Amino acid sequence: MGILADRESRLLIDGELVAGSGGTFQTINPATEEVLGVAADASTDDMGRAIEAARRAFDETEWSTDTELRVRGIRQLQQAMRDRAEELRELAISEVGAPRMLTSMAQLEGPVEDLTFCADTAEGYQWTTDLGIAEPMGIKTRRTIAREAIGVVGAITPWNFPNQINLAKLGPALAAGNTVVLKPAPDTPWSAAILGELILEHTDIPAGVVNIVTSSDHGVGALLSKDPRVDMVSFTGSTNTGRAVMADGAPTLKKVFLELGGKSAFLVLDDADLAGACSMSAFTASMHAGQGCAITTRLVVPRARYDEAVEAAAATMAGLRPGDPNDSGTICGPVISERQRDRIQGYLDSATAEGGKFACGGGRPADRDKGFFIEPTVIAGLDNNAKVAREEIFGPVLTVIAHDGDDDAVRIANDSPYGLSGTVFSADEERAAGIAARLRVGTVNVNGGVWYSADMPFGGYKQSGLGREMGLAGFEEYLEIKAIATAV
Ligand code: NAD
Questions:
Q1: Whether residue 152 sits in one domain with residue 55
Q2: Number of C-alpha atoms within 13 angstroms, CB side, residue 230?
Q3: Active centre residues (catalytic)
Q4: Which residues have CB under 8 Å from 469's CB, separation 6+?
Q5: Do 438 and 458 form a contact (C-beta atoms < 8 A)?
Q6: Residues of the domain holding 47
Q7: Alpha carbon distance 245, 146 (integer Å)
Q8: Ligand 1 pocket residue status of 216, Cβ below 6 Å
Q9: In angstroms, what is the span from residue 292 Cα to ligand 1's centroid?
Q10: H-type helices in 125-161, by residue range?
Q11: Using a 6 Å cutoff on CB, does residue 470 contact ligand 1?
Q12: Residues 84 and 157 in one domain
């Protein structure tokens, strides 16, 4: 059955596709505002059954110790996604509003191919380490370190890059031997539900190992943080929700892994190609309508060339009209919902109220009366204390801020509650590296380098999160360490 023709997605619980006890909820195309169809609306009881299934599959099957089965299951899921790539592409475009161009990268094919890293890592991993014999406290002892799956993982994900984030949790969690309950965002249920269908139909992954629970009610996801049967919550979303997840997890002291918001800075040093750097900054801030946690949304430029920088950024953004995500030339599609569009508009209003000026954009595009579109916008005339410089907007909005030299640029970049990412542009690579070393962030792009890849860890300092996703570090987040001492 075609993915888009399948207009009522199901939950995957204990190896069966089932309806939600709460009925269904709609999934909307953000570019047209049309209802695409419906998804199963899980109740708290459904979530309870999914957690129970994951618990049983972890405690009573060989899943956590059968590495060969896990590697096979992950590769089968990857192949099934490759085989259905064109349908999945249409799904990402219609449900997420993902520009077609980005589906060959992080919106679809990137994360599908990244599953290779997860399977290869599990296959080649050193699950035990022999530390040899020693005589601690005078007792001759053979010491071994074993690495084991944590248990039941609750994965809670947002809507902006659902394929990337769902797979960046499922892949390593399964590779490490855990069982999973995945609870996607209510805005993008189908991107997750289809994984349930593919797992059931095309893989040897046993019943209960993966459960997929879509719901319109955020409270259903909150059960994952609270339930004592869940050993770890892997969450990606806003910093505020991350705090709630952490607080909900505290009574049972479960491991909480958080990928949260950002307000990253793009630093242009005084020896850099100013126009080229500002243009690149404007382009990245417009991609997927700015709905990326690691997008650099503060452009920090030498004060003496401030006007020139604003002009260069605005010239690029003015050329990136928000468009139909189906068109292969579109880079800036819609934002996910009316609520998000209104939220962004609120930030734009705050910028003018604080004395800022729009060098381009500033609201909804006049030529689009349907769809949740916002014009790529450059804000000038504000400093790093402005609301738009401090808070995550999650729209195609770039605030240009003046700096007075390298130290000041670093100070501005780090003067943020967030610490997810950053960019440095300089003609002198060594100087740029020195600045990169001083940034309190989890990923840094120097002169256009790309940190996004399967073997690179991704995550944030400060209030951007706890832990790392992807890479070996991302795999090991899902492991416990056991020290075994045998008297000899
Ligand atoms: P959100 O925090 O509103 O929701 C994320 C998920 O949490 C959804 O599935 C939602 O249903 C669920 N949720 C909501 N309240 C909950 C609660 N109390 N307990 C448990 N789950 C709950 O975020 P969003 O608006 O869907 O996504 C945008 C945010 O995600 C942005 O802040 C963005 O920066 C962040 N994000 C971070 C990364 C990263 O890796 N750091 C990646 C992508 C997005």
A1: yes
A2: 32
A3: 259
A4: 168, 169, 172, 236, 257, 259, 457, 458, 459, 477
A5: no
A6: 3-260+464-487
A7: 29
A8: no
A9: 12
A10: none
A11: no
A12: yes
The rounded Å distance from CA 160 to ligand 1 centre is: 9
Assess whether the C-beta atom of 160 lies below 6 angstroms from ligand 1. yes
| CB of 213 shorter than 6 A to ligand 1 | no
Q: For residue 186, report the distance from its CA to the centre of ligand 1, in Å.
A: 10
Residue whose structure tokens are 């950053």? 422
Q: Six-digit token pair at 38?
A: 């419906």
Token pair for 156? 């809670």
Does residue 103 contact residue 93 with C-beta atoms inside 8 Å?
yes
Question: pLDDT of 195-217, one tens digit each?
Answer: 999 999 999 999 999 999 999 99
DSSP 290-301: G--TT-EEEEEE
419/339 same-domain check: yes
Q: Whose CA is nearest to atom 35 of ligand 1?
A: 237
Question: pTM value?
Answer: 0.98
Span 288-338, pLDDT tens digits: 999 999 999 999 999 999 999 999 999 999 999 999 999 999 999 999 999
198 with 332, same domain: the answer is no
Rounded to 10°, the helix 274-286/306-318 angle is 40
- Encoded tokens for 419: 């610490």
